[in-house]
Amino acid sequence: MVVASLTVLRAPGYGYSLLETLSEAGFEVEANTLYPLLRRLEAQGLLTSSWNTDEARPRKFYRTTEYGDSIAAALRTEWTRLDRAVTDLDTPDTPGSTQ
To answer: Name one Pfam family in it (predicted).
Structure first.
């Protein structure tokens, strides 16, 4: 969820729009899970936020920081490495494979 949120929020977005985007991508997440995550990522310096009061309903917009983008890139790299390792384990010619 962290990587997905940081990736989507490279463009500014508010919580509900992030929920919709993640849901459309197949990530099922509840608002009561997402909003604390956004606050935690902001506290860690991975996101910034600002209020948009131009519309009738004020919204807090989040955006990934440079630091957050570098962390997301590192996490995506690690995810890819782990995915390859698991896939390799499932290949018949790989030592330790169960096939």
So the answer is: PadR
